[in-house]
Design a protein that fits this description.
pyridoxal phosphate, L-leucine-2-oxoglutarate transaminase activity, D-amino Acid Aminotransferase, Chain A, domain 1, 17 strands, 8-stranded antiparallel sheet, globular, 2 domains, binds 4'-deoxy-4'-aminopyridoxal-5'-phosphate, 9-stranded mixed sheet, alpha+beta, BCAT_family, Branched-chain-amino-acid aminotransferase
């Protein structure tokens, strides 16, 4: 779907997957007005297909667009575009279980020019790819590297938007994590380098027995849809769940005195991933015994059961697309 200043959104098309042809002076290539979303379509037990909370993705896409001075796509148009692609590619939605069809809606500027200002032409696209279960050999805890040198986002920056530049800026820290033998990077706040923000492409939850806390939306972390869903699911399962500030010292101390029983990360791609161990330039410590914990696994099962249609959907989060 194209957007042109003065005309708005126009020319929606469903076309075979193919390369885009871009002018070398396309403004996106230089000034990075690119935003995206990620959501999944799941096969339901009756053979029909449903997406998970597309409206939440559509709203986050609008807020990312506002932050990047890009036009807002109406929520209904975002959902219709995803629906049309999933209907077209229905045979690519895996049959059951944790596998899904991953949808990647995104928007780029298409105006040609080298002046630094918001473009006057944009293109919104959706592509799709089947996604297997993230953990082929069972759920494996990840090891994390606390990034003290680099920050992902600062107050007033674009951290709360799903903007391409955030990911470009995070690659060097992810490489450091791997150099230090860790799977993923964990970001700290930009000012004090003390408060836990989020993981590479996932939000974090800290489990203290029956009490579960996730870092509050500081303005510089991404408001994850899985994170938001778990606030509701965990409360309904009887946990005392909330948002708060968690420091590196809280994490270290809780792990040392045993009050912190589990830590997990959550996001569309990996659903829920246990965090097994932590490393920073000064210290390394395990989270409990390093194995996937019962709260992590219970929440993971509850969320996957809802998404795959094995459990009821009291929140009306599934968006059915018909058989
Ligand atoms: N944080 C970041 C930086 C991400 O890229 C993602 C993935 N979209 C998340 C958190 C998790 O968000 P969601 O649950 O909406 O996938």
């Amino acid at each position: 779907i194209k957007w042109t200043e003065g005309r708005g959104w126009h020319d929606a098309q469903l076309v075979p997957y193919a390369p885009l042809s871009l002018d070398p002076a396309n403004m996106t290539l230089h000034y990075a007005q690119t935003i995206f979303e990620g959501l999944k379509a799941y096969r339901q037990p009756d053979g029909s297909v449903a997406t998970f909370r597309p409206e939440a993705n559509a709203r986050r896409f609008q807020s990312s667009a506002r932050r990047l001075s890009m036009p807002e796509l109406p929520v209904e148009t975002f959902i219709e575009a995803c629906d049309a692609l999933v209907r077209q590619d229905k045979e690519w939605v895996p049959d059951a279980g944790e596998a899904s069809l991953y949808l990647r809606p995104f928007m780029i500027a298409t105006e040609v020019g080298l002046g630094v200002r918001p473009a006057n032409e944009y293109l919104f696209l959706v592509i799709a790819s089947p996604a297997g279960s993230y953990f082929s050999g069972g759920v494996q805890p990840v090891s994390v590297w606390l990034s003290e040198e680099y920050v992902r986002a600062a107050p007033g920056g674009t951290g709360a938007a799903k903007a391409g530049g955030n990911y470009a800026a995070s690659l060097v820290a992810q490489a450091q994590a791997i150099e230090h033998g860790c799977d993923q990077v964990v970001w700290l706040d930009a000012i004090e380098r003390r408060w836990i923000e989020e993981m590479g492409g996932m939000n974090l939850y800290f489990v203290y027995g029956d009490r579960i806390v996730t870092p509050e939306l500081s303005g510089s972390l991404l408001p994850g849809i899985t994170r938001d869903s778990l606030l509701t699911i965990a409360a309904d399962l009887g946990y005392q769940v909330g948002e708060g500030r968690i420091s590196v010292d809280d994490w270290k101390q809780g792990a040392a005195d045993g009050t912190l029983t589990e830590v997990f990360a959550c996001g569309t791609a990996a659903v829920i991933t246990p965090v097994g161990s932590v490393k920073s330039t000064r210290a390394a410590w395990p989270v409990a015994d390093g194995a996937p914990g019962p709260v992590t696994m219970r929440l993971r099962e509850a969320l996957l059961a809802l998404q795959s249609g094995r459990a009821a959907d009291p929140y009306h989060w599934m968006h059915p697309l018909g058989a």
